[in-house]
Amino acid sequence: MDTAAAPTPIASARDLVKVYGAGTTAVRALDGVDVDLARGELTAIMGPSGSGKSTLMHCLAGLDRPTSGSVVVDGAIVSSMSERRLTALRRTRVGFVFQAYNLVPTLTALENITLPLDIARRKVDRAHLDLVVGTLGLTDRLGHKPSELSGGQQQRVACARALVARPAVVFADEPTGNLDSASAAEVLGFLRDSVDELGQSVVMVTHDPTSAGYAHRVLFLGDGRLVGELRDPTPESVLGALAALTVSRTGTG
Length: 253
Description:
Keywords: ATP-binding, Nucleotide-binding, Transport. The protein is an alpha/beta fold.
């Protein structure tokens, strides 16, 4: 009999509720979400505007506190952490890639990439840094400031910054929202490669079916609830699922 336990999820939520405001103006952004996100996979989160997808990611990543329910990331109970412990978690075990790149304009690409390690006073693993930088095609751009880089190059610097500390999980919020299709494909291809070849776990919020097609699994939210999922998605299957979700909704987000 095989008694090997299944791998623990890289992140999970139980009965997750997030309410903004109070009284008659309260908005229930998350309405009792239960979800497990697999280790070593690229998971995409999708849904109509107002469905709660960014709120879910922000709560999972410790960027926003849930109103109730629990969040666990890499075995740590994020939802009950102090701000000091959350800050330490975000520096060492969680990586972030945002739509707006969030690079420091006065620093070079290399200085931006190593900034989280510098802040945490951790030594840079040069071999891993070289691997990430080389995979992203940034080796000859490390001395450039963000203003000297294209949008795609800036987002690749942001990806390298997220990965260089070997975080347990990378959260990416619309990472290709500001990119043209060619640059977007480069960044998405690297995020998928970071999972398949570097063993990374990635959670990505996106509205784009093509982007979601790079994922192993797509979760669909509607009105703050988990309403469906796809394994091994294609852009076409994602479009079909989104269309069905839109038809089934009684309101707009």
